[in-house]
Write a structure and sequence with these properties.
single chain; about 290 residues; alpha+beta; 5-stranded mixed β-sheet
Length: about 290
């Protein structure tokens, strides 16, 4: 698959340092993007993607206007869009299995673009920063200084979250007061090692949480009594740069796992959890026959 910059095919590159050296406008575009005002996305139009999840849809979708994801520190947010069909995919990648994840994202977009007579794939990559452990470097490449700011001597990301308007293709810095549906079970799946998964069926306009499993582990109750600093040091890849709600989210996920030691009970008959958009704009559980 050829790589185009400003509609011109470029040859083989040895590093992203070389890429940004030859095409300095990419850095300028990143500066412009990171300086944009943060948009708070309301739940009624939102399809939220958690860590190790991806979702794809088209402009014809009546249930979703924005796909978004947040809380990315060392993680990276990937937007892939077909210019002909408008099919758009957003993924929240943490480096757990990047090489197997990329084909999933490409297939998600191309499978929704068969009817398009022309068009190309546009890639947007946001996230990472100059963290102390160089976790971001291991995940992506040399783009990190463009999303890095130093506050009180501590490196932090400039942009933690993004949204993409599926009608126009606009990508923008964003925050999300709502991270559902089924936020707890989706967080528990990732916390216990679940791999990248697709969470939306655009043909039915439904959020789809596939069955998952985890082993009962009462030992994790230890973390509920741990102080914030301990949780940050041991359960975060970027302890000095996490958003303020990180510790509460971790504890909420642990409580959920303790309350539900057997995930099978959450998926009756081994069926996925399905949610559709109501006329009021809320995600509502679909009752299975």
């Amino acid at each position: 698959m050829p790589l185009l910059v400003q509609n011109k095919r470029i040859g083989r590159l040895t590093s992203t340092t070389e890429l940004f050296s030859k095409y300095s406008h990419l850095k300028e575009n990143a500066k412009v993007f990171s300086s944009k005002s943060l948009v708070t996305v309301e739940p009624k139009c939102l399809l939220y993607v958690q860590q190790r999840e991806f979702a794809a849809t088209t402009p014809a979708d009546h249930s979703v206007s924005v796909i978004g994801s947040g809380d990315a520190t060392t993680c990276h947010l990937v937007v892939l869009r077909h210019t002909g069909s408008g099919a758009t995919c957003l993924a929240h990648c943490d480096g757990s299995s990047t090489w197997t994840e990329v084909p999933l994202l490409v297939n998600a977009v191309t499978s929704l673009s068969h009817h398009a007579k022309e068009g190309r794939l546009e890639l947007h990559l946001v996230g990472g920063f100059v963290d102390d452990a160089y976790t971001s470097h291991k995940l992506s490449l040399n783009i990190l200084d463009m999303n890095d700011i130093v506050t009180d001597g501590i490196h932090r990301p400039v942009v933690y979250g993004i949204g993409v308007n599926i009608k126009t293709g606009e990508v923008f810095p964003a925050s999300f007061p709502y991270r559902g549906p089924a936020e707890d079970v989706r967080s528990a799946r990732t916390f216990t090692g679940g791999q990248m998964t697709e969470v939306y069926d655009s043909s039915k306009e439904q959020v789809r949480v596939s069955p998952c499993r985890w082993a009962p582990n009462r030992d994790i109750a230890f973390w509920l009594a741990a102080d914030d600093d301990t949780i940050l040091q041991y359960l975060s890849t970027s302890p000095y740069a996490e958003p303020p709600h990180f510790v509460n989210q971790i504890k909420s996920t642990i409580r959920f796992l303790l309350d539900h030691p057997n995930a099978d009970m959450l998926f009756p008959g081994g069926q996925p959890l399905l949610f559709h958009r109501t006329e009021q704009g809320e995600w509502e559980r679909v009752s299975l026959p």
